[in-house]
Amino acid sequence: MITEINAKTRNGYTMVLVLILAQVATAAFAAVMPGALKLVGVIGFILVIICWFGLFVVAPNQGKILQLFGKYVGTEHTTGLRWCNPLYFPRKPISLRVRNFESGKLKVNDARGNPIEIAAVVVWKVVDSAEAYFEVDDYESFVTIQSEAAIRNLATSYPYEAHQEEGGLSLRGDPLQIAEKLKEEVQARLDKAGLFVIEARISHLAYAPEIAQAMLRKQQASAVLAARRLIVKGAVEMVSDALTSLTDEHQFELDDERKASMVSNLLVVICSEQQTQPVVNAGSLY
What we know:
By secondary structure, the protein is of the alpha+beta class. The chain has three domains: 10-94, no CATH class; 99-207, 2-Layer Sandwich (Tetrahydropterin Synthase, Chain A); 218-271, no CATH class. Helices cover 48% and strands 21% of the residues. The protein has seven helices and ten strands. The protein has helices spanning 12-32, 35-52, 129-135, 139-157, 175-190, 209-249, 256-271, and strands at residues 10-11, 55-58, 62-68, 71-76, 80-83, 91-95, 99-102, 106-109, 115-126, 195-207. Strands 7, 8, 9 and 10 form a four-stranded antiparallel beta sheet that branches. A hairpin with a 2-residue loop joins strand 3 and strand 4 (71-76). Helix 1 packs antiparallel against helix 2 and helix 6 packs across helix 7. The radius of gyration is 39 Å and the shape is rod-shaped.
C-alpha cells in the first residue's frame, strides 16, 4: 500500500532569486567566452531555463502529489510558492478541505423486513493523499458508493422503531447511537482510501409509501392504547381514594354490592370520552 511521504522541495521565492542570478551569469558567460566555453555557457543558460519549470504554487488546504517518471516521490503541503526538481511531473493537486456527501433516498428493508426510505449526510476529508490518489480509481466516487453501501447495511441491521417489550436500538428512537454506528461503518469502508469520516448522520427516515398509512394507523392505535392505559390507571386511583375517604373520614358504611356499583359508576364517569348523564335513583338499590 502506498502511504503519504513529505516531498523534498525548496522555498520558491528564494529559488526565483537564485535562478535570476544564474540566468544573468550564464548569459554573460556565454557572451564573453570564446569557442567551446561559449557552448558551455549556452548549455548552462538552457539548463537554468529548464529549472524555471520547477516552480509551482500550493494553495491553502491543498496538497501537490509529485511523481518522477511514474514513481511517487512525495506530497507537498507547504502553502505558497515552492520549487522542486523540474522532472517531478505531473504535479497533481489534491484538496484537503472538509467536504460532505448527502446520499439520495434509498429504499431498503429494516431488520423486521419493513420497507423504509433512508438518507444520510457524511462529512469527510482526505488525510492521506497518496492512498486517496493511488489506492482507488476515483476517491470521490468511492466515498459515494461506499457510503450508500454502509447506509443500506445499517438500515437492514436495526428496526425502524423498537417495541417497548423488545428494547434495543432503533433507527428512529436512538438517533445519536445510530449516527455513531453509521460513522464507524463508513469509516471502516473508507480507511483503505486514506479518508477520514468527521461525522455521519441520518438526514431522512420514513416508511415507504406503500406501508406508510398502515404504519401510521399502528402508531395511532399504540398512542390511543397508551392514553387509555394511563386514564384507567388514574381512574382506579381516584375511585380508591373516594372509597377510602367515604369509609374512613365520613364513616359511610358500604357493603360489597354498593361499593361495586359505586366503582362501576365512577369508572364510567371518569373514563368516558363524552359527558355522562346522571340518573337519580329515588328508591333502594335492592
